[in-house]
What we know:
Blueprint: E1 28-30, H1 32-43, H2 48-53, E2 68-70, H3 71-85, H4 90-96, H5 105-111, H6 116-126, E3 135-141, E4 144-150, H7 159-177, E5 185-187, H8 198-202, E6 207-208, E7 214-219, H9 232-253, H10 259-268, H11 274-281, H12 285-294, H13 299-317, H14 322-328, H15 334-345, H16 349-361
Parallel strand pairs: 5-6
Antiparallel strand pairs: 1-2, 3-4, 4-7, 5-7
Amino acid sequence: MSDNLKPLHPGSIIDKSVSASGTDTSEWIVARPLSVAVGIAKARGRDWIGILEKYGLGPDDLEDQDRKINVHDVIAVFEDVAKAIGDDAVILNEFSALPVGYAYTFDYVGLLADSLHDSLQNWQRFYPLHSNALVLNYSKTGGYGVLECHLPETTGPAVQAAYAFVAWISGRIELVIGTVEENILLEFAAPPPRQTCPFLEKHSSRVRFGQTANRVLIPAQLLETRPPQADKDLLKIVEDAAEQDMRDLMRTVSPFSELTETVEACLKSGDGSMGKVAATMGVSPRALQRALEGEGTCFRNILEEVRSSMARRYLTETELPMKEIAYLLSFSETSALSRAVKRWFGQSPRAIREREAEHTSEF
């Protein structure tokens, strides 16, 4: 979403939990990037097991790449790996060159999309499968499409994590459009590394260090670039699997696993208010509000996310008239629906439908 609402993440209403190693995973990231970082240390003959043990982790924590690891431990491991190697640019370089399929679903919802714009939207949409502590936001501003990563607040440095994330996204974009585009800018909320590397030499004119945010800026004219591997039918299969993973994650980590389903059902009945949702769930509105506030979110955020998901589905998968879609989303009139869709997706409902019809006619 491009407005000021925080998107719902499956894990924003979670129980405090611990990993198999005993570390707190209330703020987590999957083990995949940790495996890359310690793999760099291992390949250079450094004590990678010792680095892991410093944070109560071990090789077993890397066997399942989707295992949830405390995100603050992962950020600290990144710093320790760079120090152990004596090269503060190595992580920057390695994460920029990760192969297709490294991030599983995340890669393919971008590579198979019909445009770079759709890829960026999909990355924001499905990144919660990778972490509940790092947040991806995609927006259009100042003639650019902007994909920004918000790292969690940490007591120690997060320079290497910033390097890793922006370099990784840069590499994904190159895979999506099939080339290096010199007009794409890479901004790091971190100082420049002391060492250099092939990544910096390759992109020297495009990188900016010491910025206020970690983000990638893509000129608006590039957003409609069609990925060479775009495949509507295969994308639908991957997206359906990712959406199921999102639902499974909600059921796994949330004591309110039925919340989004209840919101959708209440919206369809014409009343998506918190009072109606709470009553349907058998709790008081105040109890629901306190639970959500205690985890840093609110009912409005959840309502917005459910509405946008329903709108996308109705506009691309059905021929329902706009008036009926407005009713199903509990909007009082079609103009309110149009404004909301434009805010969520950057296009009018009619434009989304026309584009979907054009795509369908191609297959």
